[in-house]
Design brief:
This protein is mostly helical. The chain has one domain (25-116). The chain is 35% helix and 8% strand. It has 5 helices and 2 strands. The chain has helices spanning 25-33, 41-44, 50-57, 87-91, 101-116, and strands at residues 75-79, 96-100. A two-stranded antiparallel ribbon has the order 1-2. The chain is elongated and about 70 Å long. The two termini are 38 Å apart.
Length: 120
Amino acid sequence: MGRLRSLQPRIGELSSGPRKLDISFEDARRSVEWRKWYNIARWKARPNGARWRCLVRDLFTCQMCGVIEADSSMLVADHRTPHRGDPDLFWDDDNLQCLCKACHDTHKQRAEQGQRGGGV
């Protein structure tokens, strides 16, 4: 068996300088603030919270696969158009749809990643 002479480095040098963000400071701040909206009564409360109104309107039926789910914790009030911190889109009942957790966490997320140009 031959001897191993040397290994070529596989990782380049890391840049030591500051990186420029693709988003503005204001957009970054807003992206944190809107996450709090999911924990307030206007979203969560029964029977008047936006999430509950969506589930009742759609008869606890996933709008993708058609499954009817009695356990509301297995349903997601999904934003048809991603709001990305826009309060008008977030609170718009017409922008909400009922999805089962399985569809939301797989099909919907994959579709949104494709729209953003994300992926692996």
